[in-house]
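Retro notes
What went well: the complex prediction finally ran end to end.
Inputs used:
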Amino acid sequence: MGLNVIMMGPPGAGKGTQASRFARERGLVKISTGDILREGVKDGNQEILAAKAKMDRGELVDDATMIAIVRQRLLKADALNGFVLDGFPRTVSQARALDRIMEERRNGPLVIVDVVVPDSELVRRLAVRRICSNCGTGADPFGAQTTCKKCGGVLVQRDDDNRDVVLERLKIYQKDTKPVLEFYRGRNTFRAVNGEQPPEVVARELDSMIDDASGLGVKRTQHSDESADRNAPPA
Ligand code: AP5
């Protein structure tokens, strides 16, 4: 049976940070819809380029596009034994589509983790976040880096991290994505973690919640960074 995890939470909650770490430590593939979209923009993908204006305004890309992207990715061989999904589902319609995809895959339960952080802290984190302009890797928010640790690229602010767009993203999260939590809350595989703690404390709590919810007692396997780095986080 696979270990299938979705990381929920508002912009800046630390979903990407925790999803990358968890995927790396458990040898799972990490799938970030934000990363896929940003890579698509960089690669000049026409369909995704058409959605860039929405992303820059902090709005959601349409459900049909997002569901098609995620369905195709989750049915790839490397995701069939489990995945960590970051940034999807963001609407109830996406959540219903994910249930249908899980039925197609028939490989283990879906564990849902909500990373809870107050708005004031989210705004603070996103104001100081810097990512690599070349490979998208996030800089350590506690460090004093001036260039990317991974490739030496220049660190920049993400296009949608300016204050006005962050406030818009938070508004849209309340309107469209909060209802997804209500959609999942009654399930026995739903958990919530306090994300306003040091990353290593969040990680510890999250690991035991996921093991408990999955009921698998999955053995930790140390993997090379490669499997998770295929979808390296922007932050
Ligand atoms: P996406 O890239 O998914 O952005 P997001 O959800 O707004 O999330 P972020 O990446 O901003 O934050 P995060 O929770 O991952 O936090 P992180 O770990 O980076 O989506 C971008 C856009 O794409 C959307 O606005 C939309 O337009 C579109 N899109 C994507 N998916 C879509 C979908 N399904 N449907 C429709 N549209 C979609 O951490 C943030 C910062 O805090 C970092 O600097 C990090 O180092 C730091 N940090 C992390 N943890 C801690 C901690 N515990 N303490 C202190 N600092 C911390």
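What we learned: The first strand starts at residue 3 and ends at 8.
What to try next: split runs per interface for comparison.
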